[in-house]
Predict the structure.
Amino acid sequence: MESFQSLAISLGLGLLVGLQREWKESDIAGIRTFPLITMLGTLCVIASGGISWLSAAGLLSVAAMLAVANIAKLRSGVNSSGMTTEVAVLLMYVVGGALAVNQTGPAIVTTGVAAVLLHWKARLHGVVDAMTAKDLRAVMNLALIGLIVLPLLPDETYGPYDVLNPFSIWRMVVLIVGISMAAYVAQKLLGAKAGAVLGGIFGGLISSTATTVSYARQTKETPNISAIAALVIMIASTIVNIRVLIEIGAVAPTLLDVAFPPIAAMLVLMVLVCALLYMPVRKQDTTAPDYENPAQLKPAIIFGTLYAVVLFIVAAAKDIFGDQALYWIAGISGLTDVDAITLSTAKMFSEDRVDSQTAWRVILIATLSNLVFKAGIVAVLGCRRTFLYVCVAFGIAIAGGILLLVFWPGWDVNELGRLSGVLHLLNNGTK
């Protein structure tokens, strides 16, 4: 019965790929040939009781037939340099063999991926044609960071407090670069069609600070776009909350159960502020910034170093001074980078060094501190009108964040003194 089921699935999968190749009018294989080849792979494995000389001979026979077909094409004057269909034929033979040994899941996924890749030829070629040298470097750097450097690092803990693990530290670098790179690619694909709202979303995922700098500078030269620039800056800063939730979920999923409600409440508040800014300026637009490659090796090393430093300081401060020092560290480190303190705090929580109520408040303080820093950027680089818009928007967000820090359930009111100094700093940061 299992053999008949494998044959039926191989027939269906072969028809799927064959349909696409027939639609593209392939000279090598089409709607009939692909299912026959897939079933051949299945039968060869079934007949021999597993992967053996018979399945290998079948694969060689299929390869020989493909070679003969291509020679015939060349002799008839048909010049085709592509080998996509030939590779797809060999792949589907192996898929048929995988079905015979009960590897149904991988076989189905492989067929689906193959069908999509075959059908997206024009789209994929268009993406490659649109890539610049800088974009290609970004992809190669991401491969270097994630596929070469990461596996080579030792997965051992060094130094005091047992927190400095090269493999774990660089894995956080890969996470951050991966998030930024995904947004960078999406922004490149959409280009001018992204508009202000999507521009702010991508900016928040790539770098909200870089987005703030770029749009603030634009308002210095063109003050009449102040409102739309403030909207983009606010959207980018709002997306930071989503980025934070992604990072917490990746590093400490159990912390997300506690941190999600208050950070989501902060997100909703900032979304409402964005909506108020959007209404009067929805028909305006600005020039999207040309973001730097987020997968450059030097910034990745800098972030990895910063993350390691923050991780060590947080562990040391927790051990020496208790939770009170963590709030000040969050307020200071969050000025320039929210990711490092978020990841380090989440890691400390996963190692039972920080409780959940302290952890999410440390992260929220860092995000509020970052708003203060970006307001300062606008004050220095932007026009006065943009600074006014940003101050009002950020002021509402910071006030709401302070209320969350103090009044969210689970907080020990007797420990409010620990937060008082940081809250005072945040409260006056945008004045």
Q: What stands out?
A: The first helix runs from residue 2 to 23.
